[in-house]
Amino acid sequence: MAQVEATSFPAGIGMTTTQAPFIEDAKAHGRLYIEQPYQLYSEQNHEAWRRLYHRMLPRWEKYANEHFLKGIANLCLDPNKVPKLEDVNQFLCPLTGFRAKAVSGYVPAFQFFDCLRQRDFPTTITIRDASKLDYLPEPDIFHDIAGHVPMHTDKAFADTLVRFGECARTAADIVSRIGDEEEKMRRLTSIIKAMARFFWFTIEFGLMKGPKVGEFKAYGSGLLSSFGELAYSIDSPDVQRYPVQIEWVVNQYFEIDHYQPLLFVVDSFDHLFSLVGTLEKWMKDGRLNNVSPGEPGVGEEDLKSFLHIDL
């Protein structure tokens, strides 16, 4: 595949979400895993990061779980500039072996989960427009680095991600043994849907018991990177918060274009790790073969990603 050279683009041209020529060129040449062309970030990009970080800081201190706050401190993120992934990894790798890995866009389901198994985190390197800080349907570098990666500094959480990634290989092995193609695709669709829901309600939008009775703290990256929803998830009387139940989670659809009305609470990351073990057991026992219909949809690219791998 052709190499996309950052030097082909003017310095400071910008790495704004949906408006980054470097990313569009990388996609056009079929390059998913890329280098971060740091010199292309514009001052507006750094201003977006600066505004996002500074307004989130007091909310993190109030609503985030202690592991996240420790992770933010351990990463030594510059609050005023878009981070360099090589700097992030310099602090992250010695702690848990994880590293942020730059990507040009959507990573098919199996490849994404398998990256987690290998302690690589696919990381978006564009950043939202400075005039549109509140809602972004797709991830950006603030969501990935300030929302996800601080949690990756915690060993128990990092090990949970690896364990979850291993479940994808279990799923691929299970469906590879099914001879009937129609039945294979039906079961695979159900399993991927179950895994996506589990990831959504834990890694993306999970709550954890706080140190005080009846207190909740956020650990999900979708909450920790959202100024409005982080406070809403803890304070709003309109949010239903329930102890996590795996049979409920894998059968619960979700929508991405509004604040989440239903959230699940784990006791600890050891608890979350054990839930992933249960998820894999249910997969092996066939209990994920017929989860309820509804969102999220499972695309052809995601299905293919599980079917053509070396186990």
Summarize the structure.
The protein is of the alpha/beta class. It has 13 helices and six strands. The protein has a single domain, classed as Phenylalanine Hydroxylase.
Terminal CA distance? 25 Å
How big is the Rg? Answer: 19 Å
Number of helices: 13
**Helix share, percent:** 40-55%
Instruction: Please count the beta strands (DSSP E, at least 2 residues each).
Output: 6
Describe the structure.
- With 311 residues, this protein is α/β, with parallel strands linked by helices.
- The protein has one domain (11-307): Phenylalanine Hydroxylase (Orthogonal Bundle), CATH 1.10.800.10.
- The protein has helices spanning 21-28, 43-63, 66-75, 85-96, 109-117, 141-148, 155-176, 181-204, 221-224, 227-235, 246-249, 269-284, 300-307; strands at 99-103, 120-124, 207-209, 216-218, 240-243, 262-266.
- Strands 4-3-6-5 form a 4-stranded mixed sheet.
- β1 (99-103), α5 and β2 form a beta-alpha-beta unit.
- The two termini are 25 Å apart.
- 43% of the residues are buried.
Q: What's the arrangement of secondary structure elements?
A:
Layout: H1 21-28, H2 43-63, H3 66-75, H4 85-96, E1 99-103, H5 109-117, E2 120-124, H6 141-148, H7 155-176, H8 181-204, E3 207-209, E4 216-218, H9 221-224, H10 227-235, E5 240-243, H11 246-249, E6 262-266, H12 269-284, H13 300-307
Parallel strand pairs: 1-2, 3-6, 5-6
Antiparallel strand pairs: 3-4
